[in-house]
Design goal:
This protein is an alpha+beta fold. Helices cover 33% and strands 18% of the residues. It has six helices and five strands, in the order βαββααααββα. The protein has helices at residues 29-39, 59-68, 73-77, 81-84, 98-108, 127-135; strands spanning 22-24, 43-47, 53-58, 112-117, 120-126. Strands 1-2-3 form a three-stranded mixed beta sheet. The protein has a two-stranded antiparallel ribbon with strand order 4-5. Helix 1 links the parallel strand 1 (22-24) and strand 2 (43-47). Helix 5 (98-108) packs across helix 6 (127-135).
Length: 152
């Protein structure tokens, strides 16, 4: 049975928590930047006990912070991330429509949405995999993939 692209949900496409930076509120800014670099993604989710979502910190937040701060850069690296995290965040749930989530991302001009289930962080919807999921075409029930003349 074929699945329509409009039937895709956020939960089916979101990155699992192991695949992107997640830190506690007391993590140092230096640790956050190291995690973002290691995962090669420009967002870190901040959590409390039991993965309770607290906020995000993005590479854009870092640029704005460096430009407006009067602190030496070394002092910024020693700050707790909770001081600089964005706590008013747009989020989605695993059962939300992928198309609706992408429309939300477009409207807010953001690339990443934390995925929450009951206030707990369960994933991250990243723009590139979300678009890829919509672009990949699944064969319809009556269509068959090409068969090769020789065995694989």
């Amino acid at each position: 049975m074929s699945t329509s692209k409009t039937d895709l949900t956020v939960g089916g496409v979101a990155l699992p928590v192991e695949a992107f930076p997640v830190v506690g509120e007391r993590a140092l800014m230096k640790e956050v930047l190291e995690a973002m670099t290691r995962h090669r993604i420009g967002v870190t989710c901040i959590v409390g006990p039991d993965n309770a979502f607290r906020g995000v910190f993005t590479d854009g937040d870092l640029r704005r912070l460096v430009l407006r701060s009067q602190k030496p850069f070394a002092a910024l690296l020693a700050d707790d991330i909770g001081v600089h995290a964005q706590t008013e965040c747009t989020t989605v749930a695993p059962g939300d429509s992928l198309v609706s989530a992408l429309q939300l991302m477009e409207g807010r001009r953001i690339w990443d949405l934390p995925v929450l289930d009951g206030g707990r962080l369960v994933g991250l919807l990243h723009l590139h995999p979300a678009i890829k999921a919509l672009m990949c075409r699944q064969p319809r029930a009556r269509e068959h993939p090409r068969r090769h003349s020789r065995p694989p």
